[in-house]
Structures are given as C-alpha cells and as structure tokens.
Amino acid sequence: MLRSALRLFVRRCGVLFVPSRSLITKTVVVASAGWLLAACSPTYDWRTIMNNDNGYTVDLPAKPTTDQRQIDIGGTPMNMSMQIAEADHAVFAVGTVMLPSDDPQVQRNALDYLRSGLAHNLGSAPDAHVAAIPLAAGGQVQGLEMTFSGKAGPKQETRIMHARLVAKGRHVYQAAVIASKEPPPEQVEQFFGSFKLY
Fold first, then answer.
1. 14-50, pLDDT tens digit by residue?
2. Of 175, 22, 71, which is closest to residue 30 (Cα–Cα)?
3. Using an 8 Å Cβ cutoff, are 70 and 80 in contact?
C-alpha cells in the first residue's frame, strides 16, 4: 500500500544553478546554497492541507507530493490517491480510496483490504483499537487506530507504523506515519490530531 511512501525515505533535494558574473552574485549563490541545504534538513515544517476533492484536512510536516493508483478490492477496481510528506526520516501519508457506493459492506471490504495490506507489508499483526476520528464541522466518526512494528522493503529493514483507518460516505481513508524508529510522540499527535473529515 505504501511502497511509494517508503521510497520517499531517500531524500531528494534539488540543485539550484545560478550563473554568476560578480562577487555580489556569487555571495547570493553561496547564501542561497546554504539556505537550500537548511531547507533539506530533517525538520518539521507543519502546514495545513485542505483536500476538498477527497474531503479531509490534515497537517503535514513538509510540502506534500501526490500519488495515484488503481487497486482491486474484492474484484472491483477502485482509485486510491495519496498525499505524502517526509520529515526527520519519517513519512506522513494520507491515502483515500474512492468507493463505488457508500454501502456499509463496501466500506468494510475496503477497510479490511487496507488493514490486511498494512499487516502484510510489515509482516506483523497490529496493536489495534477503536478511535474517534473528528469531523471538521464537529462531531466524530468511529475508526480504527493501529500500531505495527516489523520488517519492510527489499532489505527487510525495521519499520514502525502508526495508522488510522476510517470510512465516511464514498471514501475510505488511511492516515499513516512510517519511520525506521519511533518518531517524537508530539509530531505523531500533531498529524493525527489534525486529521479531520468533511
């Protein structure tokens, strides 16, 4: 499910080329390079993302990238879109599956698919419990909160994952934090505490 998110553990900082003709320009280039290196350092730069297409708002620790793919749930092709941000060697991601209907059985099938996929990716059963997912307009819906620890990727490296799964209407959501070691709890709470559905 989060293979593309795991690939983002490799930091991709851009290189800026500015032709210089004077000492002032060279000074600006050196200062800019220092700024760029600082911008690529593993820090949390929280910003609120409002995803009107998929009906949620969330705080992410960096400018997000997006990914989209088609998945097959119970023989039915469905579209899954993701917003992904990385900070301090942790990936923060929200995936949204667009369902063909808001039928409760369709929602349950999608939730089961995501839960079993996460467990399979890390080769471990989660520590799971019911969690209240807030609505932006007030109130809440019931979701599932899980914590996984296991091996993932081609090198079978240790990964820790915190995830929340929830269905609302024709959407099923997967909010997750994936890291090689336990992220600071306040950063995990910032992410999950800000995740609200429309």
1. 222 222 333 333 333 333 333 343 444 458 999 999 9
2. 22
3. yes
The gap between the terminal CA atoms of the chain, to the nearest Å, is 24
73-100 pLDDT, tens digit per residue, is 989 999 999 999 999 999 999 999 999 9
Domain boundaries, given as residue ranges, for the chain: 3-14+39-197
Q: Supply the DSSP symbol for 198.
A: -
Angle, vertex CA 6, rays to CA 168 and CA 134, nearest 5: 25
Measured CA to CA, the distance from residue 124 to residue 6 in angstroms comes to 17
pTM: predicted TM-score of the whole model, two decimal places? 0.78
Comparing C-alpha atoms, which of 57, 56, 85, 101 is closest to residue 187? 85
Using an 8 Å Cβ cutoff, are 164 and 129 in contact?
A: no
Q: Which stretches within 14-103 are classed as H helix?
A: 23-39
CATH number for the segment(s) 3-14+39-197: 3.40.1000.10
Q: Two tokens at 86?
A: 């990385």
Backbone angle region of 75, left / alpha / beta, with phi > 0 → left and psi within -120 to 50 → alpha: left
